[in-house]
Amino acid sequence: MTSQGRINTLFPLIALAFLLPSLLLNAQTAKPREIGSSPTYIQMATDGVKTLQHWYSNDTGMYAQPTDWWNAANAMTVLVDYSRVSHTREYLSVVSNTFDRANGAYRTHDFLNASYDDEGWWALAWVDTYDITGDQKYLKMAETIFTNIADQWDQTCNGGVWWDEKHTYKNAITNELFLSLSAALANRVQNAAEKHKYLDWAQREWQWFKASGMINGQHLVNDGLNSKNPHACVNNGENTWTYNQGVILGGLVELNKAVSNASLIAEANAIAHASIAGLSNSDGILQEKTVSGKDTPQFKGVFLRNLAALYKAAPDEKYKHFADANAQSIWKHDQGANHKFGALWQGPFDSGDGTRQTAALDALVAAASMK
Question: Which residues are in coiled coils (predicted)?
């Protein structure tokens, strides 16, 4: 090779040596990748799940405060749903660990406590885990929890289960969770008598809920019945939280699987459309009327999770576009350092914790599932 040839060969290497420090600096300071330039929703969720697990304790099976008892149940559901959509089993050992270690972490055994909505979240998490693992212990635990909730049904307000063991309130979320759980068990148990029992409960719950008045004239679900006087049994007009609009969608989808009644999907679609129209900002990003305390940051994710279930049962491009808009907004406008996500999906990022992270992951996983 001539001297000139050697120079021509070495020149690109010399240029790369000068450019390399600048390239490394840019890589270190790069902003989160934009939609279209790289990450898929699965990749976004993968980054987010890794961050979520920084708050997890293997010793307790729980997440660091302010993430509380019922929020941890939702985190288990997110891990399972992420595992399903990403075709991985990497985090199922985390779910198993929580099943073993958090069993009596709150107050008593079998994931029971003084609030029956908390119990409902855990029961649905174990149903979801049963679906992906096939392990009967999870389904049996869900049945145990069901029995405890069903015992809270009485004839105050002509039916419905109570929110707490002191019988202070009959509200939407507890009864929506009971509907979802009853129908889910009816669709999964093999014994005919047990299947009939759970289906009977699901139908009884839906008939009561629909007649209760908690679904208002705008097709949105208010928080519950008159809490100052539970015997008054009228819609209390309190907040239409996003999770109240979400859980009912999943319950109606499960009940429709059991009985195939088009009116159930029609009802779910009416609530979903009303929620998208009435609870979003002008850019189509889901918002809570107020975000405070440990609980409300969880709510929006529950809506997206159940909207995805409705989309699977009754595909509607509006639902897909809505999920896309929210997932993209979380990634672009509500992301802090190290893939932490906040409570304001429209932005700006406020703070990070396990509850905020779980809710945002619900939205990313929902978008990934709506193919």
Answer: none
